[in-house]
Amino acid sequence: MNQSNSNKARLRGVLAPVVTPFNPDFGIDYGLFIAHCKALVADGAGLAVFGTNSEAASISPCERMAALEQLLQAGIPADRLMPGTGCCSIEETVALTSHAISLGVRSVLVLPPFFYKEVDQAGLLQYYGTVIDRLGGASVALYLYNIPQYTQVPITEGLIDALLQHYPECIAGLKDSSGDWANTSRMLERFAPQGFDVFCASEIFLSQTLALGGAGCISATANVNARGIRAVIDGAARDAAAAESAQRSATEIRKVFQSRPMISAMKHFLSLRYRQPAWQTVKPPLSQLKGESKDALIRELTEIGFS
């Protein structure tokens, strides 16, 4: 087993990149945020706060730090958290990661720097290496975040090999949001046997991921269906027929949400689930779902028996 994976308690299973509720002035609504996070934990999910579906790119580092503090003060267990701390700036990434560690959080999800295009492996290795070095040996499980359709900077097998060679004590795994099952399966076959935790980014691929030794999924729609996605994992461990049924249901639900702007769709759904219209607010430049789209979303979910 790789040294990085031999002695750490690791997050596995279902994690939600938690959608972020905003006030009318676009500040974070901490009351709604904490309540939603508590509901997700109760449904068996970990919390990948400040991910893509959290609108993290629109939230300042100071706001992220304050929100993380609020969660922990409200009793959210630190070992259920995997905050996104990756920024273009090494300094901001180190600041966010160090802050999380200081609060007792031990898992972080780190994007590659995403402004400059066509960067080479040496530059990415130096970026991640500098971040790790500046953490000064702090105990952290660092998960790489591969979402090249947004960043234009893919996390390659070669980069993972190099990072595991140089920083085995920190590099813990990968979230593959490439949307390419062939890529995810290669990562699983190559690295899962070493104890490197690979998460798929859509529950559509969850059963396949588990079959290849994957750690679980970090999926947007865990915000609305954490319990249903968790049933896939629980069924895989105990009951193949139950797992297959849960997988079909989770896939249907995912497809409804991903056929429209997912953040806005999930927020509209949560505004109805929680009876809190404020949940519909998205931060510019995003826009809320329009009336017809709202109606179609709820109609399609009702047709498949999800509410």
Which features characterize this protein?
single chain; 307 residues; alpha/beta; TIM Barrel; seven-stranded parallel sheet; 7 strands
Approximate shape: globular
Cα separation of the termini:
43 Å
Order of helices and strands: EHEHHEHEHHEHEHEHHHH
CATH class group: Alpha Beta
Q: What is the CATH homologous superfamily assignment? A: Aldolase class I
Q: Structural class of the secondary elements?
A: alpha/beta
What CATH architecture do you see? Alpha-Beta Barrel
CATH topology name, in short, is TIM Barrel
- Radius of gyration using CA atoms only: 18 Å
Quote the beta fraction.
5-15%
* Largest β-sheet summary: 7 strands, parallel
Strand order of the largest sheet: 2-1-7-6-5-4-3
Compute the number of strand runs.
7
Q: Which regions have little confidence, pLDDT < 50, spanning 5+ residues?
A: 1-7
- Mean of all residue-level pLDDT scores: 95
Number of domains: 1
Oligomer: single chain
Helix share of residues?
A: 40-55%
DSSP summary: helix tally = 12
Explain this structure to me?
The chain is an alpha/beta fold and 307 residues long. It has a single domain (3-227), classed as Alpha-Beta Barrel (TIM Barrel). Helices cover 47% and strands 9% of the residues. It is built from twelve helices and seven strands. Strands 2-1-7-6-5-4-3 form a seven-stranded parallel β-sheet. It is globular, with a radius of gyration of 18 Å. It starts with 12 loop residues before the first strand and ends with a helix.
